[in-house]
């Protein structure tokens, strides 16, 4: 007959054995390094997108008059610097890693000082990995590069044609200023001041036949973004629009032919209408997200009033399409292997 202490010991050992068996799957799972599963939102709850990459169109004013412009000068409002900085801080807290300043023309307001201060703030204070600007390039000065160049990762300059007559037809230009010569000057400053140089082109009725291979290879941008001309109700089409862009629109087939002609340019990143429409997080001059899902820009409330998490739900942002179009790329100049 077994003693009482012996029985107790056996019971204890059995309990311990059961405890270890229950841990076994967990131990094996950790040992093989399986990823910890992501928290899935409860049924019926829509996951909010994280605003990893944001385009802040802080001004709508521009010195050019491109016929297909899809962010037109419907207001002349610009937030005070402190309010814009507060909004950028909120976005950083919500997960922003990349900010792109756009317009209108970002260098028009306070002759580039405003965008310069925002760029410096985002790099110095917020320590964002990537800070970029999209500009038509006509108002950028070397003085600006000297003062703010070190805080800027990427300067994207719009160029739709290397033929000045075509630029004139599109509305890209100002009197006698030569858009193409200016582009070459900007390329040089980007090299001199350590800023990655990017080119954005919109393929439309007037440049669709053009062969840009030689000029693009010579300018050697880190990225050449090629967009298909897009209609947005209320901006460049429809009754309350400031432009009538219908005559600029091209078919998907024409866009494909343009891409084929430039297939040897390795930095080319194409963006069809389908890819473009919902895959950008756009903030307007009041820091409202603009939802383009219905073919027009419908604003959320301002992040300054309701916070980022509330506003971003109304952004219409398609996170999957953002990743599919390669929205996340090497976007910090510190990570780019470039021969300046
Ligand atoms: S440069 Fe850009 S913002 Fe200005 S009119 Fe042309 S497309 Fe619009």
UniProtKB/TrEMBL annotation:
UniProt entry tagged with the keyword Transcription: no
Superkingdom assignment: Eukaryota
Main location (coarse class): endoplasmic reticulum
Membrane topology type: Peripheral membrane protein
Listed InterPro entries: Aldolase_TIM, Elp3/MiaA/NifB-like_rSAM, RSAD2, RSAD2/Viperin_antiviral, rSAM, rSAM_sf
Signal peptide: 1-24
Pfam families assigned to the protein according to its UniProt record, in alphabetical order: Radical_SAM (PF04055)
SMART domains linked to this entry: Elp3
Keywords: 4Fe-4S, Antiviral defense, Endoplasmic reticulum, Immunity, Innate immunity, Iron, Iron-sulfur, Membrane, Metal-binding, S-adenosyl-L-methionine, Signal
UniProt-annotated location(s): Endoplasmic reticulum membrane
Domain (Radical SAM core) ranges: 48-268
Cofactor: [4Fe-4S] cluster
CDD domains reported in the protein's UniProt record: Radical_SAM (cd01335)
NCBIfam families: viperin (TIGR04278), viperin_w_prok (NF038283)
Family: Belongs to the radical SAM superfamily. RSAD2 family.
Protein name: S-adenosylmethionine-dependent nucleotide dehydratase RSAD2
Lineage, opening ranks: Eukaryota, Metazoa, Chordata, Craniata, Vertebrata
């Amino acid at each position: 007959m077994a003693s009482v202490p012996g029985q107790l010991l056996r019971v204890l050992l059995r309990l311990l054995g059961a405890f270890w068996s229950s841990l076994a799957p967990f131990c094996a799972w950790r040992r093989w390094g399986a990823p910890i599963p992501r928290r899935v939102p409860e049924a019926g709850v829509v996951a909010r997108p994280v605003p990893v990459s944001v385009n802040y169109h802080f001004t709508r004013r521009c010195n050019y008059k491109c016929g297909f412009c899809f962010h037109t000068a419907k207001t002349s409002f610009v937030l005070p610097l402190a309010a814009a900085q507060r909004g950028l801080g909120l976005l950083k807290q919500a997960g922003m890693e990349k900010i792109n300043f756009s317009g209108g023309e970002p260098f028009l307001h306070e002759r580039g000082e405003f965008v310069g201060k925002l760029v410096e703030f985002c790099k110095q204070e917020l320590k964002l990995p990537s800070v970029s600007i999209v500009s038509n390039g006509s108002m950028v000065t070397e003085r600006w590069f000297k003062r703010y160049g070190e805080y800027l990762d990427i300067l994207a300059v719009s160029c739709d044609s290397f033929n000045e007559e075509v630029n004139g037809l599109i509305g890209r230009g100002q009197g006698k200023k030569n858009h193409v010569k200016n582009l070459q000057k900007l390329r040089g400053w980007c090299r001199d001041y350590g800023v990655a140089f990017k080119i954005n082109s919109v393929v439309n009725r007037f440049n669709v036949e053009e062969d840009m291979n030689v000029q693009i290879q010579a300018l050697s941008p880190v990225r050449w973004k090629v967009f298909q001309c897009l209609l947005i109700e209320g901006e460049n089409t429809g009754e309350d629009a400031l432009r009538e862009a219908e005559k600029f629109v091209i078919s998907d087939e024409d866009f494909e032919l343009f891409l084929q002609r430039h297939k040897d340019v390795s930095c080319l990143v194409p963006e069809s209408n389908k890819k473009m429409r919902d895959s950008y997080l756009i903030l307007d001059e009041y820091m409202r997200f603009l939802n383009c899902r219905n073919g027009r820009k419908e604003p959320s409330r301002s992040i300054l009033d309701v916070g980022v998490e509330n506003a971003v739900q109304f952004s219409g942002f398609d996170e999957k399409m953002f990743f599919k179009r390669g929205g996340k790329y090497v976007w910090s100049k510190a990570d780019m292997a470039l021969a300046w």
